[in-house]
Amino acid sequence: MKFAIFGDIHANLEALEAVMADAEQQSCTHFVCIGDIVGYNANPHECLDFVRSLDCPVVKGNHDEEASADTELIGLNPLAEQAMTWTRAHLDAEDKQWLRDLRMVRQVRDFTIVHATLDTPSSWGYITNKFDAMASFSYQYTPVCFFGHTHAPKFYVKSSSVNVHPGLSVDLESGKKYFINVGSVGQPRDGDPRPSYAVYDVSAQRVAIRRIEYDMATAQRKILDAGLPPMLAERLSLGK
Ligand code: ZN
C-alpha cells in the first residue's frame, strides 16, 4: 500500500495534475491532502474540484481558512491581499462551505496529518528548524505525522533528541517519531521550482520526497491572464 501525501497546491492546477500523474506511476493507491488547496495561483475552483474528486482525507490550511471567511482581510501584505481578494471572488458558496468544514488535524491509518504545527494548529506557526519541531513532537501520538506550510520538504526525526534527516527519503525505524514536511505542489520555496510531494510505502516503511517537472509556463500564463500580481508568476520560476 502506497500513499501520496501532498499539499500547498495553491490553485496551481498544472502542478497538481503532474503530481497526480507521477503518483499513479509510483503505484500510489491512497491520497492525503495537507491543506492550502487555494490561494496565490489561478485555478482555485478547479484544484478544489480535483481534490474533492479524490475523496481523500484533507486538513485545513491557512489559505483555505482565509479564502472561505467573510471577515475583512487585515494584516496581509498588499500582494497577498490582492491574491486573496481574487481567490474569494473565484470560489462559489459550496467551495467555501467545503473549505470551512475541513478539520485542523486528522489521523489516517497509523499516521497524523496537520497543515502547520501540532501544538497550536490554528495559530499557523512555521516550523523551520528542529527547535520549532520539538513542540509539535510533544503532541504527536502516532509514529509519523505529515505537514506542510513552509513549502520546503524536510524530515524531522525524534529519538533521544530531535534531528533533521538529510536526503530525500527515510526508512522508518520503530521507537522513533517522524515529523515530515512534504513540501509544496504549487509554490515551492526551497529554491527548487519543481513540485514536491511524499510517497509513503507502508509495507516497506519508507517515505520518499518526489520532485517532478510540470507545465510551469501554462500556470504562469494563467496567472498573468487572470490579472493576478505578475510577481506570483515570477516566483514559480525561482522556487521561492
Ligand atoms: Zn501554503
Short recap of the structure:
The protein has helices at 13-25, 44-54, 62-67, 78-89, 93-100, 130-137, 216-225, 230-238; strands spanning 2-6, 30-33, 105-108, 111-114, 144-147, 154-158, 162-165, 169-171, 177-181, 196-201, 206-211. With 240 residues, it is an alpha/beta fold.
The number of E-state strands comes to: 11
| CATH fold descriptor | Purple Acid Phosphatase, chain A, domain 2
Task: Report the principal-axis shape.
Answer: globular
Quickly count the helices: 8
Report on this structure:
- The protein is α/β, with parallel strands linked by helices and 240 residues long.
- The protein has a single domain, classed as Purple Acid Phosphatase, chain A, domain 2 (4-Layer Sandwich).
- The protein is built from 8 helices and 11 strands.
- The protein has helices at residues 13-25, 44-54, 62-67, 78-89, 93-100, 130-137, 216-225, 230-238; strands at 2-6, 30-33, 105-108, 111-114, 144-147, 154-158, 162-165, 169-171, 177-181, 196-201, 206-211.
- The strands form 2 sheets. The chain has a 6-stranded mixed sheet with strand order 3-4-5-9-6-7. The protein has a 5-stranded mixed sheet with strand order 2-1-10-11-8, covered by helices on one side.
- The radius of gyration is 17 Å and the shape is globular.
- The mean pLDDT is 96.
- Bound molecules: zinc ion (ZN).
- Zinc ion (ZN) is lined by residues 8, 10, 36, 61, 63, 149, 151.
